[in-house]
């Protein structure tokens, strides 16, 4: 509509000028007629001038939807193209033009419609998160934070930035980069804290803050955060599931089970809740129910490798080794590069007496995750069962290189050192195991063997007594104790 008035003015002026100057009318003779003729000429000229002054400039025509107050600022015309160039420059698309763009972000946020800037940056950040490019996502979301004009918008921008850090941490953790992952979790936690300063009643921020705390092994704090999320939204199944996971990490498996059931009460077709329910049941020794829970998870999501793998664990506990092996194969069909599945598959093969294949599966697990102490440990165990002690020892050493606080590896290392005739080293290794886990009967037993081989029978007998204190029904320790007593009588 703003153009119609200008067009009508121009047309009227042209018609009047044409009539007066080009149709060759007779020149007025009377004074009144001459004045009217002159006024008409001036009117036509005035219409031309007004039309020329009022007609929109080229810059205005390119963005007619912007309010007048935002069209010009310090004699600079604002365009969305300038924002796009800034965002592209920040991710390296405009070579050599990066300098100065970061400093002008605040100016651009003021210059362009704030809501447009915010939504553009948020959308770009969310797309980058979806693509797994978390560094780029954080760059976009930093612009969203600068563009946010109110507390609600700031809370949203900080929230998604924290989510990007959280997911980046998960990605780094899966790659074995634990230190960098922890840095991202700490940054995510700080981001959720800022989010909640701007918007206290933000349940998703509370829940994700709990996830970050859980990843930092601060499970009690994580539980409190899930409770806060549920205060604002009681019927959210994800919050119940996350709360159940925190309880499971605290060893409160009965409560974890109840929380998974609460999640399923609000969302029956929730495969992750069924899977975690199975985990809780397994921890409680209810393997038949656990297996059924995994079946429910797979009924809703067939391509769920974690549920297939966990189902295999439950079936193995039930002695159904062939079915367990099939379940692991299904898991690998969906995720070939998952080291945990290879580890579990190796265990099933060992239960079937297929030891060489078991060893090969542990090697496959290590091919995908070299710093996997459990795979190194299991590899050492099977090599010991095969009588390959010289190869067994380096596997325990590798396990301990990945995780020093691994009493089972220390104890088994002591046992194999004893078999290799390195008795003093065997004793030291058993002592290391007990330094990490004092109530570990196997380590006391292996220590007794090492001391007995050194002829230190009194100490060996005391080690046997300590082992029986923690496991009174261990027949191997009873037998060793009798052997030591016989040696002492000689």
Report on this model:
This protein is mostly helical. The protein has a two-stranded antiparallel sheet with strand order 1-2. The longest helix has 24 residues. The radius of gyration is 38 Å and the shape is elongated. The relative contact order is 0.03.
The profile of the biggest β sheet is:
2 strands, antiparallel
Name the strands of the widest sheet in spatial order: 1-2
In whole angstroms, the N-to-C terminal distance is: 116 Å
pLDDT < 50 stretches? 57-80, 91-103
Helix tally? 27
| Helicity, as a percent range | over 70%
- The geometry reads as elongated
Map the helices and strands.
Layout: H1 2-22, H2 31-54, H3 58-61, H4 68-71, E1 72-73, E2 76-77, H5 80-90, H6 105-111, H7 114-130, H8 134-147, H9 151-174, H10 178-198, H11 203-215, H12 219-232, H13 237-249, H14 253-266, H15 271-283, H16 287-300, H17 305-317, H18 321-334, H19 339-351, H20 355-368, H21 373-385, H22 389-402, H23 407-419, H24 423-436, H25 441-453, H26 457-470, H27 475-489
Antiparallel strand pairs: 1-2
Helix pairs in contact: 1-2, 7-8, 7-9, 8-9, 9-10, 10-11, 11-12, 11-13, 12-13, 13-14, 13-15, 14-15, 15-16, 15-17, 16-17, 17-18, 17-19, 18-19, 19-20, 20-21, 21-22, 22-23, 23-24, 23-25, 24-25, 25-26, 25-27, 26-27
Short description:
This protein has 490 residues and is an all-alpha fold. It has helices at 2-22, 31-54, 58-61, 68-71, 80-90, 105-111, 114-130, 134-147, 151-174, 178-198, 203-215, 219-232, 237-249, 253-266, 271-283, 287-300, 305-317, 321-334, 339-351, 355-368, 373-385, 389-402, 407-419, 423-436, 441-453, 457-470, 475-489, and strands at 72-73, 76-77.
